[in-house]
Task: inverse folding
């Protein structure tokens, strides 16, 4: 995949598409979306681009992953406490 646009000769953000996919997956599958967004930020950062969607997706993915982990831990404790 080329990081330059052939029509205008300008350099494009190599992590833009991956950032969009990661942002969407941050809501549907938070751990996967977070990993993709972190990868997109690294690709964009290599050429000094600021990938805002990837940054937002990585934070949303992290928050939702931690939220799910806390929810599952509390659910497990409840089920063990009540012998279900």
Result:
């Amino acid at each position: 995949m080329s990081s330059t646009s052939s029509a205008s000769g300008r350099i494009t953000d190599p992590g833009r598409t991956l950032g969009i996919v990661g942002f969407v997956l941050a809501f549907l599958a938070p751990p996967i979306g977070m990993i993709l967004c972190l990868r997109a930020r690294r690709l964009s950062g290599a050429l000094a681009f600021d990938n805002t969607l990837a940054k937002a997706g990585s934070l949303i993915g992290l928050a939702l992953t931690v939220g799910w982990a806390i929810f599952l831990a509390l659910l497990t404790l409840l089920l063990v406490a009540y012998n279900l």
Observations:
- Helices lie at 16-28, 30-46, 52-81.
- DSSP finds three helices and no strands in the chain.
- The chain has a mean pLDDT of 91.
- The CA atoms of residues 29 and 61 lie 8 Å apart.
